[in-house]
Amino acid sequence: MKRTERLKLIRDLIKTKKIASQEELIEELSVIGCGVTQSTISRDIKQLNLVKVRNSLQEEYYALSSKYQVDPQFNIGKIKFKFKENVLSVDLSNNIIVVKTNSGEAQGVAAVIDGSNFEEILGTVAGDDTIICVSNSEDNAKKILKFFQQL
């Protein structure tokens, strides 16, 4: 199998399944008849610019890169710190989470939320002291709200 074909298979797998490790990816590829080594997978992950993301249930898995490429473990600590220092309240309306912050802190808190790569959050809009987080569904908005409240 050509490398371009394998990369397309990997992209398709990453889009449809939550693959948490290189070993899982190797297994999934072997099921569909594509045997590869760990070193090949490592190079493919780098070539595809895959990143590990974390959802609101704290499950970690590979995803296609977004503009925010940071270590999820680092961002969980950073988001906890930002929330503890700057967030006054978190509320919900349908699929929108409203985060109230100290004056002047909304932009920084929103940047940390965006940088955390939550798959459930489509995007954020920040003013001076208010952030609107738009979730991809009402159920996921409730999960994110619960996660934010636990910080």
Proportion of strand residues: 15-25%
Q: What structural category characterises the helix and strand content?
A: alpha+beta
Shape type: elongated
Multimeric state of these chains? single chain
What is the mean pLDDT? 88
Rg from alpha-carbon coordinates: 18 Å
Tally of individual domains: 2
**Order of helices and strands, N to C?**
HHHEEHEEHEEH
Major sheet description: 4 strands, antiparallel
Annotated CATH architecture of the largest domain? 2-Layer Sandwich
Output the strand order for the largest sheet.
3-4-6-5
Taking the alpha carbons of the first and last residues, their distance comes to 47 Å
* Uncertain segments: 67-74
At the third CATH level, what is the topology name of the largest domain? Gyrase A, domain 2
Total strands: the figure is 6
Counting H and I runs of at least 4 residues, what is the number of helices? 6
In helices, the fraction of residues equals 40-55%
- Assign the CATH class of the largest domain: Alpha Beta
Structure notes:
The structure is a single chain. A hairpin with a 5-residue loop joins strand 1 (about 50-55) and strand 2. The protein has helices spanning about 5-15, 20-30, 40-50, 70-85, 105-115, 140-150; strands at about 50-55, 60-65, 85-95, 95-100, 120-125, 130-135. Helix content is about 50%, strand content about 25%. It is built from six helices and six strands; from the N terminus they run αααββαββαββα. By secondary structure, it is an alpha+beta fold. It is elongated. Helix 4 (about 70-85) packs antiparallel against helix 5. The strands form two sheets. It has a four-stranded antiparallel sheet with strand order 3-4-6-5. A two-stranded antiparallel ribbon has the order 1-2. It starts with a helix and ends with a helix.
